[in-house]
Each structure stands twice: as C-alpha cells, then as structure tokens.
Design brief:
Blueprint: H1 36-42, E1 58-62, E2 65-69, E3 76-80, E4 86-91, E5 107-108, E6 115-120, E7 128-133, E8 139-145, E9 156-158, E10 163-165, H2 174-178
Protein name: carotenoid 9,10-dioxygenase
GO molecular function, one term: carotenoid dioxygenase activity
Enzyme class: oxidoreductase
Length: 181
C-alpha cells in the first residue's frame, strides 16, 4: 500500500504537574505507585498543588467539557483551539470528600448522560472508590469498595445496573520496592 500524503502527528501538553524548580527531574518523578513521587514532594522538587497527573491516557467528552484523563490524578478540562493548540482550562473539582484520582476510562451512560468512574489507592481500605457524575458534571454519588488487598485497577466495566470492578491478580507489594537491590 502506498501512502499518498503524510498525516501530521503532534504532541500536545496538558498543564498539570510541573517540576519547575528541577525540570531535569520530570522524567524520574512521574506519578507511579512507587515512592518516587512522594519523595520528590517531600524534598520540595515538585508541587502537586495543581495536580499530579499527566492527562495522557485518554480523552472523554462529558458535561460540555473535553477531559484529559490519567488514573493518577483528577481529569483536566481542555479545549482545542481553531489553530490546533490545546489549552488547559483547569483541573476538575468534585464536591464532597477529597478525591485524589479518577479512572482514565470512565463510562458514560448513553441514556441519561451520567459518567461512572472509579479510582484506586494502596494505603488503606477501601482500596477502590466508585462514583457517578450527573449529566452536568456534578458528583451525585460516591462509595468505597473494600477489597482483600489493593490492586492496580486500570479500567472497569458497566452494565445498565452495575459497575463491574476487575479485582485481578496484578498486585502491588511495597516491601520489595523498599529493599536495596
């Protein structure tokens, strides 16, 4: 097959976590389950005041906003200008108790416009939180899900009646991460 024209490919940056005081560290302080991000925060190398994610996993359109998603942070509302530039509008704020992360693959109900989401953490049960945003982007329900052990839950499923959580054997054990090699 012969290509008749080139297709331009461009990387756009979502203004999220910035290692402004130490740009050389941006590659090694990426959000991860390891202690690298927490160490960088403790040392004052990075600030997560305005978010800790990269918004580089997926896009979703909900409640009139285009959202850049990464499971390590809340979504960032963005807009694409006529020139093709991407402008970061801000980090999504959800009412109620603090929520540190949001799935990169939320599910939008095609009937009522609600967005279903999960997030996971490793520190304590409930290891998973599930929730629902109404068609206008307001948090209408959120609940914790207790599990026997924490796992990386990158995605979820949804039916008309249920959110399907995948408690798979991809586990994080911090003990080997803390040992010297």
């Amino acid at each position: 097959m012969k290509l008749t024209r080139a297709v331009p490919w461009t990387v756009r940056v979502i203004a999220a976590m910035q290692a402004a005081s130490a740009p050389c560290c941006s590659k090694i302080v990426a959000p991860s389950p390891s202690g690298a991000r927490r160490l960088a925060q403790a040392l004052g190398v990075v600030s997560v005041k305005n978010g800790a994610g990269t918004g580089n996993t997926a896009l979703a359109f909900h409640a009139g906003r285009l959202l850049a998603l990464h499971e390590g942070d809340l979504p960032y509302a963005i807009r694409v200008l006529c020139s093709g530039l991407v402008e970061t509008m801000g980090r999504l704020k959800l009412g109620g108790a603090p929520l540190r992360a949001f799935t990169a693959h939320p599910k939008i109900d095609p009937v009522n416009g609600e967005m279903l989401f999960i997030n996971y953490r490793f520190e304590a049960n409930p290891y998973v939180t599930a929730g629902v945003l109404d068609e206008y982007g307001n948090l209408i329900r959120r609940w914790g899900v207790e599990l026997p052990y924490p796992v990386m839950m990158h995605d979820m499923g949804a039916t008309q009646s249920y959110i399907v959580l995948m408690h798979l054997p991809l586990c994080f054990d911090p003990e080997p991460q803390s040992r010297k090699a």
